[in-house]
Amino acid sequence: MLLGKGNKKMIVNALMTCMLIAAGCGRSTETDKLQTSGPKWWQQTVAYEIYVKSFMDSDGDGTGDLNGITSKLDHLKELGVGAVWLTPCYVSPQADNGYDIADYYNIDPAYGTMDDMERLIEEARKRDIRIVMDLVFNHTSIENEWFKESRSGKDNDKSDWYIWKDPKPDGSAPTNWRSIFGGSAWEYDETRGQYYLHTFLPEQPDLNWENPEVRKALQDIAKFWIDKGVGGFRMDAITYIKKPDYADGRPDAADGLTGIHAMTANTDGILDYLHEFKSEVQEGTDIFTVGEANGVAPSDLKYWTGKDGVFDMVFEFGLVNIDLPDESNWCERREWKLGEFRSFFSENLEVSDETGGWFPAFLENHDQPRSIDHFMPGEGDRIAKGKALATLLLTMKGTPFIMQGEELGYINVDWPSIDDYNDISTRNHYSFALEEGYTEEEAMDGVHHFARDSARTPMQWDASANAGFTKGEPWLPVYPDYQVFNRAEEKKDPDSVLNYYISLSGLRREHSELREGDYEDIMPDSDSIFAYTRTQGDKKATILINFTDSEARYDADLIKDSECLITSCGDTSPGILAPFEAVVYGQK
Ligand code: NOJ
After folding, report:
1. Domain 11-90+101-135+222-237+280-509 falls in which CATH fold?
2. How far apart are alpha carbons 223 and 25 in whole angstroms?
3. Residue 63 confidence class, pLDDT cut points 50, 70, 90
4. What is the pLDDT of residue 468?
């Protein structure tokens, strides 16, 4: 039989899938051996988030790509990473940098091809690294064929795949909900004479999960990627998929609107959809799922994670919102105490211990400020701060998630004008602040603290032009400090943040108590030191982190009969921590 190019490719893909299943990934058949007891692979490793657009550009177009990632896998291996979460790299018009997906089954040409993706999965696998895809299932792009068909009229196969509603009698939007990125959450469509709902941008219409065909189509996408050999999924904006009654809320700002988050996040009935997803997609596989769970209070976590929950882990937002009472208003920040910071960890870990769930430790992601500025603002040495936070991240119970650049000690960008910022949500937050009566200076102050661009500047690989990220013009400016803070320079410097990360990650591998041990807060009243133990049988590690710019003291009995395993300052004295010092003690 003569094989056409398409057929050959199908056969190659099928063979590849069989090989991957044989290698332990993919959906299982009855004969596969799935691990039934002991810690899972993703509980033993370190995870790393790659903002694909900014990691490494292999072809000089100024945008990071999959081949760029493949070329840098050894950096991840050295950090002890075993799972790499890629931000969406599917076909997308990029209204929200890929979180608006036009085709879930193909790679955006700016990032490469499906062959490049298969090669990345394979090369990663050779290094014991699994690729984790971002599933953006609350919404698609307006360029998605499903939406194009849905908006073409009221009578088509996909007419109710999205959320369409008639206008109010006066022609206005069906409800007064404000989208998360600002402005009404409804967009009028001339052809249908109706509004569609968008929790985020008008270019990101919400899918109608009430429709079983929609749920099935989404499950099929996930299965397709499992068959490609991925190791897990991060579930984007997943708390918004179930909508409640479509009723107006009480206005919460001068625009007369009410934030959609308060109206739709974590609505009754949502878990049924997610249980269905888990049983249809995940059961019988060794993948993990981590849900982006903004709006799930700690008291509700037990339904979301754990043996009877819907995901293996959930990113709860208590920590990243610690200084932000209202996410839509970046101009109103609040002071917080170390006790609140600690409570986030205690509460999350308590729930996961009780329910058999697992905690994803994270201090940054591509939507958040850099942790050095976020959690240790003000005076002090940024390198010391970066190491202190690294200690927390890599000695916490759970799977640590490092955001690209965090391991090099990145800080926030502080570009002078709003025009310098690329992120649409940042620009919208700025306009919202001005409309609400804040001054330009106040609005820019909010931007400097919370702009998402801070986490998205190109990765700094070396001191050459554009930090070695691209040979072209980078899509977002490289941070000006790149000649000092880059991977190559930091690798040479024994005192760098990078080398500290590498050492800590090695320590975590060597000491099972740092991965699996019980967590206990041992200085619950301190305003300056975050101290805890990790205990497993007769093994115990004690971790002490000074969150202040001054020397801080603790009772040296806490580390009796212990030896220092690592300190962020080179040298340490029992009972005393230098400004922002972190230290890990283990038993002699
Ligand atoms: C959460 C993602 O992390 C963010 O980057 C994106 O803009 C929204 N969801 C919409 O998909």
Report:
1. TIM Barrel (3.20.20)
2. 12
3. very high
4. 98
Ligand 1 centroid to residue 71 C-alpha, Å = 27
Q: Quote the pLDDT of residue 53.
A: 98
The confidence band for 14, taking pLDDT boundaries of 50, 70 and 90, is: very low
- Rounded to an integer, the average pLDDT of 324-332 is 91
**Contact between 134 and 86 (Cβ < 8 Å):** yes
Residues ≥6 apart with Cβ < 8 Å to 221: 104, 105, 135
Instruction: Report how far apart the first and last C-alpha atoms of the chain are (Å, whole number).
Output: 69
Ligand 1 atom closest to the Cα of residue 200 is 10
Q: CATH number for the 519-587 domain, one of 2.40.50.140, 3.30.230.10, 2.60.40.1180, 3.30.428.10?
A: 2.60.40.1180
Express each pLDDT in 544-582 by its tens digit. Answer: 999 999 999 999 999 999 999 999 998 889 999 999 999
Pick the atom of ligand 1 nearest to 425's CA. Answer: 7
Q: If you measure from the C-alpha of residue 237 to the centroid of ligand 1, how many angstroms do you get, rounded to a whole number?
A: 7
Pairing of strands 288-292, 313-315: parallel
Mean pLDDT over all residues of the chain?
94
- Report residue 588's pLDDT band, with 50, 70 and 90 as the boundaries: confident
CATH topology match: 11-90+101-135+222-237+280-509 vs 519-587: no
- 539-546 and 529-536 beta bridge pairing: antiparallel
- Give me the DSSP letters along 387-429: HHHHHHHHHSSSEEEEETTGGGT------SSGGG---HHHHHH
Query: What is the model's pLDDT at position 298?
Result: 86
E strand map for 327-476: 360-362, 399-403
Angle at alpha carbon of residue 197, lines to 192 and 203, rounded to 5° = 90
Task: Name the pLDDT band for 102 (thresholds 50, 70, 90).
Answer: very high
* Atom number in ligand 1 closest to CA 181: 7
The domains of the chain are located at: 11-90+101-135+222-237+280-509, 519-587
Q: Any idea which residues carry the catalytic annotation?
A: 236, 292
What contacts 33, CB < 8 A, 6 or more positions away?
none
Half-sphere exposure of 551 (CA within 13 A, CB side): 6
Query: Which residues' Cβ are closer than 6 Å to ligand 1?
Result: 96, 99, 136, 200, 236-237, 292, 366-367
Q: How far apart are CA 186 and CA 171, in angstroms?
A: 12
Beta bridge partners of 518: 535
Q: What are phi and psi of 487, to 5 degrees?
A: -60, -45
* Cα–Cα distances in angstroms (integers) from residue 561 to residues 450, 504, 573, 574, in the given order: 43, 21, 14, 11
The pLDDT assigned to 37 comes to: 80
Average pLDDT of 169-186? Answer: 97
